[in-house]
Amino acid sequence: xxxxIGLPNQVxxxxxxxxxxxxxxxxxxxxxxxxxxxxxxxxxVMDTVALAAAAGATTSIGLLSQVLLATTWPAALLAKEAASxxxxxxxRLTLGxxxxxxxxxxxxxGHGPRGRGARMDRDLRTYRSLWDGDPVPAxxxxxxxxxxxxxxxxxxxxxxxxxxxxxxxxDGYIAxxxxxxxxxxxxxxxxxxxxxxGRSGRPRLVALNYFALGDPDRGRANVGDYYxxxxxxxxxxxxxxxxxxxxxxxxxxxxxxxxxxELILGPCTDDLDEIARLADIVL
Length: 283
Hints:
alpha/beta; TIM Barrel; globular; Luciferase-like_sf; Alkanesulfonate monooxygenase SsuD/methylene tetrahydromethanopterin reductase-like flavin-dependent oxidoreductase (Luciferase family)
């Protein structure tokens, strides 16, 4: 199982200038992937900006959005943004996508929360059309350079529609941040949907958890603030923040036992020393 680390782009009032340095240090430490968590209606750094900054600051580490709220974007614009980041990085991006749940994130006229599932299905066709070099809608030029690849996609979400979309239109599944015993059912559902869709092989399975090693109280408070509008899920995420080496190691073992391909450990603060603290435990 690969071990990745999140960028602190979702931390309230993050020092944005930390992002490139964080990315370089994470790569130097030996983490497999840099992940982003983000939304519009929150004072952080946009997922795509954080990923682009990380792409320019590194040379080999993987890049993953976990998850980007795809239906809040016009499809053609997101397709070009993703292709551009993937190209700049040398083909290191994986798009983790979700349909979004918080109404205040839907800030683009005509892209509200109603009908977002059906819009997501349409948007997927737009992404692939543009990545394949088709002309932009109502135009004659392609949006991306020739030779652009189809960016790998993973899906999050826990509804039947989310599992169906994952199985038919992506490379795998990202579980929400939760303890391994609760993620087990989601992974099983993803595997089942994959088989029922007639897909060969198995889906890529990614797990997410949070850690706060230097300042646990501040870390838990930051996570609680980010998930304040999610009801009971807020308590689940906050209680699951790993604050010591034993807890982190136990999580790694449990997710390995579940068959996760990767565990991304997300920071709860923008303290750069958290990278070394985590690396000393898991790498």
